[in-house]
From TrEMBL, chains A, B:
The keyword Zinc applies. InterPro entries: DNA_Rcmb_RecR, Rcmb_RecR, Rcmb_RecR_Znf, TOPRIM_dom, TOPRIM_RecR. One of its GO terms (biological process) is DNA recombination. Belongs to the RecR family. The keyword rRNA processing does not apply. It comes from Sulfitobacter sabulilitoris. This is Recombination protein RecR.
């Protein structure tokens, strides 16, 4: 490589991002260098800020820049509905659809015998606490329509039985599909037609 | 979006990179936040350094961190051979193959009637100067095997006729192919079998 050490280091780090390999990382770095003032400098600046400030919400697992996220601190969102998702990307997909006005609980994954992920590895104990302490009437299990997602939904339903009304997203989520891949309209339709477990 | 302003800004800037769209930018940002100390902080730091130091070599157009790049300042590379490429990514591809020991000249594109790119928009006048002033015996035209690439090669060959031996990469570069997509072996074979124009 004829580029100097720092440029090589930048390419190497960019290649570690999901969706980028060595070749696309090289293209991205050349693009960044060419768009220095429009892209590289602003990106470097905001990355420094996010590196210094980003954290997981201690209550729900959402990503934000405060110990308790904007959704958890908003009184408007305390409507008695709690939507359980696997991942922050799923929470973002729900928020883009704009259909849900309550709060979230991000599990941080699914139960998996294969990967030895048990309830204590997710935020399931904290979920049980929240249902009691936040006056939750309805828990919407918006987990992915995968085997692990549905296994996790059933486990949570067992834990919460009798403590809140349990619902899941309606048919409309494709079998084997992941929330973050769906368009907003599909999510909205599935949410509106949600059914009791 | 439930994420705060800085995280949104980071997603928006990442989505401007070639090869990333909004969805893959969101995935990349979540990955960065999760790997804060291993990936986000080092990436932010090296990006700041590259934003402050990266520049185009005033002599050849290569990207580096000095006004004149390492290849142009290395006496070892002054072997009388000059390899003309369209883009820095092509120079990097040549360097990875390790087959070429001379210097480079990066045009920064190709002549294009459609996009109104003329000789003065590329580094062609500077190329003519360099052939005279750097004691170049052989100019290897390593342009892409596209119509614009070959048009540009013929134009440069006309300009340099009688001033240096002109060669081009051997057959072996696929028709319509671009250097940066080729494996090192193909580039090495095409370079070794280069022929006089
Ligand atoms: Zn929260
Ligand atoms: Zn140079």
């Amino acid at each position: 490589m004829s580029s100097t050490r720092d440029i090589d280091a930048l390419i190497e780090l960019m290649a570690k991002l999901p969706g980028l390999g060595p070749r696309s990382a090289r293209r991205a770095v050349l693009h960044l260098i060419r768009k220095r003032s429009l892209l590289l400098t602003p990106l470097a600046d905001v990355m420094q800020i996010v590196a210094a400030t980003a954290r997981e919400c201690l209550n729900c697992g959402n990503v934000g820049t405060t110990d308790i996220c904007d959704i958890c601190t908003s009184e408007k969102r305390a409507n008695g509905e709690l939507c359980v998702v696997e991942d922050v990307a799923d929470l973002w997909a729900m928020e883009r659809s704009g259909v849900f006005k309550g709060r979230y609980h991000v599990l941080g994954g699914t139960l998996s015998a294969l990967d030895a992920v048990g309830p204590e590895d997710l935020r399931i104990p904290r979920l049980v606490d929240r249902v009691a302490s936040e006056g939750i009437d309805e828990v919407i299990l918006a987990l992915n329509a995968t085997i692990d997602g549905q296994t996790t939904a059933h486990y949570i339903a067992d834990q919460l039985e009798g403590r809140a009304r349990l619902t899941s997203l309606a048919q409309g989520v494709p079998i084997g599909g992941e929330l973050d891949y769906l368009d907003d309209g599909t999510i909205t339709a599935a949410m509106r037609a949600r059914k009791a477990l």
